[in-house]
Amino acid sequence: MTGFTVVDDHFSLDGRPVRLLSGAMHYFRVHEAQWGHRLSMLRALGLNCVETYVPWNLHEPSPGVFRDVGALGRFLDAVHDQGLLAIVRPGPYICAEWENGGLPSWVTGRFGRRVRTRDAGYTAAVERWFGELLGQVVRRQVSAGGPVVMVQVENEYGSYGSDLVHLRELAGLLRRSGVEVPLFTSDGPEDHMLSGGSVPGLLATANFGSGAREAFGVLRRHRPRGPLMCVEFWCGWFEHWGAEPVVRDPAETAGALREVLECGASVNVYMAHGGTNFAGWAGANRAGPLQDGPLAATVTSYDYDAPVDEYGRATPKFWALREVLAGYADGPLPELPPEPVGLGRVVRVALAEGAPLPAVLEALGDPEGGPYGVPPTFEELGVDRGVVRYEVEVPGPRRPYPLGVRGLRDRAVVYVDGVRAGVLTEEDDTLAEPVAGPARVELWVQSLGRVNYGPRLGEPKGVTGGVLHERQYLHGVRARALRLDAFGEPGAVDGRVPFGDVRETGPTGLFRGFFDLADVAGTDHAGLELPGWACGFVWVNGFCLGRYRSVGPQRTLYVPGPVLREGVNEVWVLELEEAGAPFVELGPGAPVRAGAPGVGAG
């Protein structure tokens, strides 16, 4: 029987010492039809193992309602088919620059600051989730002939809390559920993180992007014995809307990786292939050293400046890291699979039809709720991703006073008596022009992504305070939600949304266009651009590509080739602020990333 164990200062696989040369690839960020190719790229990079997180919120969107939990098992089977080992990081908190750090919004809405602690209610929710999930892992452990060699307990807990009772409870839950392979924790190489996040009896590992000797020196102060491993070797970094692109020099990255391996350590390259935050699942951060500043929302692309780019292609960083990893391989590295082929031509898709946003809300939205004394948050409405329309009356007669929103998260397009009055944000939360009463006020509020890291984890979205006219709260608020998931229901758009001439749609709404493709066989990907469009979401043949924003830096959305079809294809654009030119363009996608020096993550 094959087994994977910790023996003194090394790992052992079937009785032989082994070094894990792993790379992160998240099954939920890559179209399932492309898993095989991307995994073969990781083998060609020189890796013998793959790591993945598991996002709880993707698989349990509401309490006790589970969605495609088997995707993890299918991915692990694909890993095994490629002859690779696997590391699974099931959380329940994962960070991962993913919405709410992977925690369902109904969990953080219900338990608030009690999440990630020993709280009995939170623990019960985790137990139910793990009871549904862990069979996918247990049946695929290396001792059962599968690829799974290690499982992580929570994630970077020392960056958040110090409830070691909670960590021990999670470890016990994993063991009782049948997980036999080694358990581990991972934290930053700082004393307070390692003391708060590691558990006696479990392997402790470190996360960093450079300075391996110093980082492992800190780890050794806490764990004098045991295998050394960098579970997140940050080879790049993620990007935020409105910020500059982030790149890391390939040669510098390769040198930092070489230092990790020269320490005799195992490694997990984070990310080896980043993929895409489809369907609005990108998370957000708070700026500042205490993660308590302005919201910084993560872009749709999770390219991460990784060696295998978002389009599945080898970059200069791929070749630099492959050269290092080749020195630690058992033999010659595999050849690369065929390079992914992009759409062979540029296709301009006219968006000739549209439906105003209020009409889309009427067709696909939740029933209206209220009147409420105070505006309900997204969590109180049970909304994870989407937009909520709040309506409230300004009593009158009264003279003009400033109108603002206290506790707005994150953006609101405001209408007064049906006329657009401005866009408000958390930092700029008062209309430029005062409002007289009586008046009817609408606020179309969208979340730009829930915080996935730090002390603001789990903060609510929507209007979390109230609507103020002068210093007076306006009560009697009505609310109605338009969820992103509503667009994915069978037949949701056709026959329900009242499309008409795009010229009569207005600046916000759902816009639709069609285009023909003669031959899509062998097409791995395309790129989609929206000239002049401000902020919203795009679907191709019912598949949600994710969010777009005019503030950049991302200009092109990744389109998986498997969602394209021969013959007629359909595009939907949900614009929430200001429509652009009445078309989108599909093409071969962004060019392969250059290897120029830039801003590093380490």
From TrEMBL:
<dbReference type="InterPro" id="IPR008979">
    <property type="entry name" value="Galactose-bd-like_sf"/>
</dbReference>
<feature type="domain" description="Beta-galactosidase galactose-binding">
    <location>
        <begin position="511"/>
        <end position="569"/>
    </location>
</feature>
<keyword id="KW-0326">Glycosidase</keyword>
<dbReference type="Pfam" id="PF01301">
    <property type="entry name" value="Glyco_hydro_35"/>
</dbReference>
<dbReference type="InterPro" id="IPR048912">
    <property type="entry name" value="BetaGal1-like_ABD1"/>
</dbReference>
<keyword id="KW-0378">Hydrolase</keyword>
<dbReference type="InterPro" id="IPR017853">
    <property type="entry name" value="GH"/>
</dbReference>
<dbReference type="GO" id="GO:0004565">
    <property type="term" value="F:beta-galactosidase activity"/>
</dbReference>
<dbReference type="Pfam" id="PF21467">
    <property type="entry name" value="BetaGal_gal-bd"/>
</dbReference>
<dbReference type="InterPro" id="IPR048913">
    <property type="entry name" value="BetaGal_gal-bd"/>
</dbReference>
<dbReference type="Pfam" id="PF21317">
    <property type="entry name" value="BetaGal_ABD_1"/>
</dbReference>
<dbReference type="InterPro" id="IPR019801">
    <property type="entry name" value="Glyco_hydro_35_CS"/>
</dbReference>
<protein>
    <recommendedName>
        <fullName>Beta-galactosidase</fullName>
        <ecNumber>3.2.1.23</ecNumber>
    </recommendedName>
</protein>
<feature type="domain" description="Beta-galactosidase 1-like first all-beta">
    <location>
        <begin position="375"/>
        <end position="476"/>
    </location>
</feature>
<comment type="similarity">
    <text>Belongs to the glycosyl hydrolase 35 family.</text>
</comment>
<dbReference type="InterPro" id="IPR001944">
    <property type="entry name" value="Glycoside_Hdrlase_35"/>
</dbReference>
<dbReference type="InterPro" id="IPR031330">
    <property type="entry name" value="Gly_Hdrlase_35_cat"/>
</dbReference>
<feature type="domain" description="Glycoside hydrolase 35 catalytic">
    <location>
        <begin position="11"/>
        <end position="326"/>
    </location>
</feature>
<dbReference type="InterPro" id="IPR026283">
    <property type="entry name" value="B-gal_1-like"/>
</dbReference>
